[in-house]
Design brief:
The structure is a single chain. The chain has six helices and 34 strands. By secondary structure, it is mainly beta. It has four domains: 138 residues, Sandwich (Immunoglobulin-like), CATH 2.60.40.1930; 114 residues, Immunoglobulins (Immunoglobulin-like); 87 residues, Sandwich (Immunoglobulin-like); 95 residues, Immunoglobulin-like (Sandwich). The strands form eight sheets. The protein has a five-stranded mixed sheet with strand order 2-9-8-4-5, with no helix packed on it. It has a five-stranded mixed sheet with strand order 11-18-17-13-14, covered by helices on one side. Strands 19-25-24-21-22 form a five-stranded mixed sheet.
Length: 492
Amino acid sequence: MKSSISLPSLLTLLIIQSSISVVATNHFDDPIIISIDLDNGMMTDQDLIVTGYIENEVSPTSVWWYLSNSDETLASGFLTGELIETDVQSSRPQWGFSFIIDVHNIMPCACNLHILAQETVEDPIEAIRSLFLHGSTQLLPPTIFLDSPREGSWVSRYFLLQGNSFSIGDSEPMLQAKITQSETTTQCSEQDSTTILESVVIPDKISSVDWLAGSFSSKIDVSDFADGWYDIFVFASNDESSDDSELCISLRIDNTPPKSIINGSDFAIEGSSELLFDGSETDDAVWGRTGINYIWTLRRPSHTGSTPIEVSSGLDVRTYSVSTDYSGEFELSLTTIDQAGNSDTTIKSFVIDNLSPIVRLQIDGKAIFDGDSVSISKSSTTSFDASYSSDTVNDLQSLRCVWRINNVPFYEGLHRDMTWPEGVEDQYELIIEVSDDDSETAILTITVSDAEQREQFPNSLIVLFGSMGFLLYAVIRRRQTSEAEHRIPKWI
């Protein structure tokens, strides 16, 4: 028994040699449909005329066919330049095709006819028919082909082996699947399938087969397999033929989830440069870092519970930046998904510390600072302006400014043209409190006095100076009287 020969080189050659034209493709179009006017399991010993049509929005850029058994490609051809658009009423255009297969040099053969159509760079669509080309006395093994998994597929824990097998004769065929580890992606063409069939124990017989429809399905458990490339051999046989039909595909088993890793700072100041988080150390063991999907989710538990603030995802999106415009406690989670669907999530908490606002006050255009004493005219209107108070960009528009006179609130806003407050005599304490939306506050306190009162001479000082003048006069007068008494002669 020969081993199965893969067809990548043939398909590549067919695509290169076929007539390729650039066509604008709508990725939301329905897929190509290939219809073949042949029944599966057809038997003939005559030249075979194959007809059918291809349905699509636009003419396919490449169409080709090949006929193969388990060992090799027996015939092939191109159909791209031979397509004829039909006049059949349909929701989409159709292109008919027709070709002849000379079976005389091929018989006997349990064969599969493959017809493929491709639109620009999209993966080709394939239709397959099983044919038995033989004389009346010849016995042939069942045919076999797979629908899934595809060559090079990624699988984890288990996969569904699905395909079709058709048989002639009265005996019920038997299907077997064998898995063996591969060192390269082309190992199928290098291994002896006879040895594989006789030596590999698990998995074994495929029992879920609908021979009337020709379909089979089997759930293959690979949860105990180490990560790596593997070859899947599928064999079909019956009691009426000494030969087997077989096929082999290579696939990648990946049972190990990637290890999500986030590197980045735990702390930042509001309004500073963006925080950058790096997930590039995330790794998927045997398969490395290529092809991993990254899902970054930013949450703010203290404000929004579990509702994400932002989600960013994509293939190989290994870094994520967070603006520091908003303060608070945050959680950043990184979920990584490998090409087999395995995933891992890690969470990093960090804090953006809020900056308090700064109160800045101008009175009639002059800058005033905390603790200053200011004199204003009691009889005039004065401009008090706190609009130059500052904060980070995100908080600036939400600043709340409360004004107090002798600690009694009387106004809210950043600017006030104010007259002397009622009920206040000659002096009061003005307090300005500015707060942002994170309840951080800053306070400026000044003493405001009546400038006109300062210009007047206080009555208390007048009384004081009058008293001092009267006292000084009395002292001088007393001294003068005493001296006069000493100058008067005494009579004896």
